C-alpha cells in the first residue's frame, strides 16, 4: 500500500503543524505517515470503529517528534469532534465500507474547516484489475467468501455523495502502482 499512501499525502498538501484526521484509520499506517509529513506541532487523529485495529495503531510508533497523535473508537457517521476542527481529512480504503456515504461525507464536511480538503481512496471495479480479480475468484472458490464489497463503490456515486455534502472542486483521479521493473537474473558462482 505504500505507493497509495504517498499518493494520498501528495494530494492532501498537509499544512505543517496542522490538524489532520484519518477516518477509518485501521492500524494507522496512513495516520503515522501524515504525522511525519505534518511535523512538529501537528495534531493527528485516527478514527475507526474497530477496537482491534486501534489497539494495533496505538501500539505502533511513528517517527514524528512533537506530533500529538490521538485515537478514537467511533463511527464516521457520528464523529466525536466539533465543527471545523481539522485542516484536512484523509481516508484510505474506507469510504466503500461506510453504511451511508452520504452521512459520512456530511460528517467529514462538518469537522473540516472552511477551505479544508478531503482525500479518500477506494479500489476501482474488479473488472479493471487482474490481481484482485484472480485473488477474489480464488477466495470465492476455496472458502466461499469474497471481498467484492471493497471494489463496489461507483466513482460517480462517490462524487455525488461528496457534492451533496457541500464539497466543491471534487476531483476523481485513477491511481495505479507502477509495474515493477523486470527481475534481472542473479548469478552466483563459487569455486
Ligand atoms: C480496508 S480497512 C482500511 C484501514 C486503513 N485505512 C488502511 O488503509 O489500512 C477499512 C477500515 O474501515 C473501518 N470502518 C468501516 N466502517 C466504518 C465506520 N462506519 N466508521 C469508521 N471506520 C469504519 C474498518 O473498521 C476498517 O478498519
The CATH class turns out to be: Alpha Beta
Total DSSP E strands:
5
User: How much helical structure, as a percent, in the residues?
Assistant: 25-40%
Relevant CATH superfamily? Vaccinia Virus protein VP39
The percent range for strand residues is 15-25%
Uncertain segments of ≥5 residues (pLDDT<50)? Answer: none
Shape: globular
Structural class: alpha/beta
The CATH architecture category equals 3-Layer(aba) Sandwich
Ligands in the structure?
S-adenosylmethionine
Task: Tell me, rounded to a whole number, the average pLDDT.
Answer: 92
Order of SSEs, N→C?
HEHEHEEHEHH
Query: Strand order across the biggest sheet?
Result: 3-2-1-4-5
Largest sheet: 5 strands, parallel
Quickly count the domains: 1
C-alpha end-to-end distance: 42 Å
Amino acid at each position: 500500500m505504500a505507493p497509495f499512501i504517498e499518493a494520498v499525502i501528495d494530494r492532501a498538501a498537509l499544512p505543517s503543524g496542522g490538524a489532520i484526521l484519518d477516518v477509518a484509520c485501521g492500524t494507522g499506517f496512513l495516520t503515522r505517515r501524515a504525522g511525519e509529513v505534518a511535523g512538529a506541532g501537528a495534531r493527528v487523529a485516527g478514527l475507526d470503529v474497530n477496537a482491534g485495529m486501534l489497539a494495533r495503531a496505538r501500539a505502533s510508533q511513528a517517527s514524528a517528534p512533537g506530533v500529538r497523535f490521538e485515537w478514537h473508537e467511533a463511527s464516521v457517521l457520528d464523529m466525536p469532534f466539533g465543527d471545523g476542527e481539522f485542516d484536512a481529512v484523509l481516508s484510505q480504503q474506507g469510504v466503500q465500507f461506510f453504511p451511508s456515504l452520504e452521512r459520512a461525507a456530511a460528517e467529514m464536511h462538518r469537522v473540516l474547516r472552511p477551505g479544508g480538503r478531503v482525500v479518500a481512496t477506494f479500489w476501482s471495479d474488479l473488472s479493471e484489475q487482474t490481481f484482485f480479480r484472480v485473488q477474489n475468484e480464488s477466495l470465492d472458490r476455496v472458502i466461499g467468501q469474497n471481498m467484492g464489497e471493497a471494489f463496489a463503490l461507483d466513482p460517480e456515486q462517490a462524487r455525488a455523495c461528496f457534492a451533496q455534502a457541500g464539497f466543491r472542486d471534487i476531483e476523481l483521479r485513477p491511481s495505479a502502482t507502477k509495474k515493477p521493473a523486470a527481475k534481472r537474473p542473479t548469478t552466483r558462482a563459487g569455486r
